[in-house]
Design goal:
single chain; alpha/beta
Length: about 280
């Protein structure tokens, strides 16, 4: 609560919680927290894995022993969006999948295509965990495009881990949004490099294709909390407002550019298409 309240005090009024199946999603907990803090929390549906799909999807679906025409993953994602998640009444506002260093495994591709199909049915935006060092953002873009996804509704996550401007421009030129979203994880990419990369892309005319964030959490059982704080002291919900924005201003990024990345681009991503 304290971390979220501190963030709200900086003027942040909305966040996306992309905790989906595979990451310990539990909506009643989010509901209890949201009742105590003046914050819009957008929850997500999807599956997070680097290799295999959860067991409940191993035997049903197209080409499986218990074959179905429509992938049950797609049906679940659409239900979470249209009807709500697990009888909580809370509807998902984002879709999520992942492709890490292992690349496009059979199940990763299946999940990604199910996410794309759910997007086609609902118009819900997508965020993808990617491994910038392995260039998997371009793989994700290709697969989602094959499913007919509107790439302007896709955030290719963790692009900020890379300073390869050719790679980043190649993703942005598809219409997708660059997730410069791991500020504070200096062990992967140093602070100065992350800021310099965003500033360079702004100068190149890509402010309208970036969003800024931390990929931070109040709690994770991925690692001991004390060790995480010692290793990543800046990985907190106020790092962007307190440290990143001043550093960008020093590099000539304007207030208009900052508003574009923090306000306008997320609003466009979550807006319904004009034809809807």
């Amino acid at each position: 609560m304290a971390q979220l309240s501190e963030m709200v005090s900086r003027g942040i009024d909305s966040i996306v919680d992309p905790t989906v199946i595979g990451l310990g999603r539990y909506i009643p907990r989010i509901q209890r927290i949201n009742a105590r803090v003046d914050l819009n929390i957008v929850v997500a549906t999807g599956i997070y894995t680097y290799s295999n799909a959860p067991m409940q999807f191993q035997f049903t679906g197209p080409g499986k022993p218990f074959a179905t025409t429509v992938d049950p993953m797609t049906e679940l994602f659409v239900k979470d969006i249209r009807d709500g998640i697990a009888d909580t009444g809370v509807k998902a506002g984002m879709l999520k999948c992942a492709i890490d260093a292992q690349g496009l495994t059979r199940d990763v591709e299946r999940i990604m295509r199910a996410v794309g199909q759910a997007h086609r049915q609902t118009g819900t935006p997508i965020t993808v965990h990617t491994h910038a060092g392995r260039g998997t953002g371009l793989v994700a873009q290709r697969v989602l495009a094959e499913e007919g996804v509107d790439m302007t509704k896709v955030v290719i996550g963790h692009c900020g881990d890379s300073s390869d401007l050719d790679y980043l421009r190649a993703i942005a030129d598809t219409g997708a949004i660059l997730g410069m979203d791991r500020f504070g994880i200096d062990t992967i990419c140093p602070f100065q490099t992350r800021v310099d990369t965003v500033a360079a892309l702004v100068r190149a005319g890509y402010a309208d294709r970036m969003v800024l964030a931390h990929d931070a959490s109040c709690y994770s059982d991925f690692y001991p909390e004390a060790d995480r704080r010692a290793a990543l002291p800046h990985w907190r919900f106020t790092h962007v407002t307190d440290d990143v924005l001043p550093a960008l201003r020093e590099r000539g990024v304007t207030e208009e550019d900052i508003t574009t990345m923090l306000v306008d681009n997320p609003r466009t991503c979550f807006s319904a298409p004009e034809s809807a």
